[in-house]
């Protein structure tokens, strides 16, 4: 059995996460990959189709390319607008730099994906005025709040936590 990762007292509650998702109009995906097998690509396709956010992709190695009809930017500073949420798909050791960039552009929310844990960077982000959501998938949270979450992360069209008996 795997031990649960303890949540910090400053982690946004479910109601607060819902409010973040409802208020947001734009999301920057830092560490976006054009590889369809990567989680960032899957999240991007969901957000484009089902969430109605303006998306911005950030990956210095793919800068200048078009993916899913959108340009890939080299850094957060290169975006045409300040995103409401910076969604991070980078190694935990890269988070301090992402926090610096997020603060520099004035984005209010840093959202760090599942499995990416750097409590020092999250604490630094909060100390510098950011709302930091850590170790959570933006796609899963969006689907959960909008009635479309299935165990595998797909929209089933059912709003229930119970499996239907056949």
UniProtKB/TrEMBL annotation:
Organism listed in the record: Saccharopolyspora taberi
UniProt-listed InterPro entries: CoA-bd, NAD(P)-bd_dom_sf
Domain of life: Bacteria
Pfam families for this protein: CoA_binding_2 (PF13380)
Name of this protein: CoA-binding protein
Residues annotated as domain CoA-binding: 20-116
């Amino acid at each position: 059995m795997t031990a649960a990762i303890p949540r910090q007292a400053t982690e946004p509650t479910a109601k607060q996460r819902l409010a973040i998702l409802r208020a947001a109009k734009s999301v920057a995906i830092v560490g976006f990959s054009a590889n369809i097998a990567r989680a960032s690509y899957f999240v991007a396709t969901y957000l484009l189709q089902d969430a109605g956010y303006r998306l911005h992709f950030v990956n210095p190695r793919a800068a200048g390319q078009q993916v899913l009809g959108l340009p890939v930017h080299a850094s957060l500073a290169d975006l045409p607008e300040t995103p409401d949420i910076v969604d991070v798909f980078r190694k935990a050791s890269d988070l301090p730099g992402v926090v610096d960039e997020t603060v520099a552009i004035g984005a209010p929310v840093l959202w760090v994906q599942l499995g990416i844990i750097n409590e020092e960077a999250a604490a630094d982000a909060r100390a510098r005025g950011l709302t930091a959501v850590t170790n959570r998938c933006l796609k899963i949270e969006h689907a959960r709040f909008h009635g479309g979450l299935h165990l595998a992360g797909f929209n089933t069209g059912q709003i229930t936590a119970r499996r239907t008996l056949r």
